Fold:
Amino acid sequence: MDWTQLLKELADAVERRNRRVASLRTAGSTVAELAAQALAAGAPDAPLRRILAAMEPMIEHERRPQQSTTAPEPPTAPRYSLTEACAKKILPWTAPTARKYMRGHSPRRGIPVPTGSLEGKATRYTEDELTTWLSAWQQQVDAAPDRPGEEPDLVSR
Structure:
């Protein structure tokens, strides 16, 4: 095979590769858009992360170099497990009570539950996420006690 034929085959192979890359970019954009829509619709973080983890990683030489034109991000807010949040008095209960209220009662009562961030086996929340949820919980409890004729108990025994 002479070099002119090899160059023609090379040009064809590059063209096929470029079409596939363009197709992958389109698919990547679709994945990003669907993930953003799922988050906006209130999808929990853990299942979303599990689905996205199944994506094949990009081949290193296919990646575009990352050029940062923005200032470095500020340090992230500290995150607390429910046990730590209760110990620091961010939440006024024990961890099991907070867990029951947050994960059990809140969804049934229509109170938005913070998604937090799964780190190891524990979900960790920012203080702002916890205080926002606590405020919504307390407003709901003040408006509708658990049992008719009884005052809500905001502190575990």
Observations:
- The beta strands are 79-80, 117-119, 122-126.
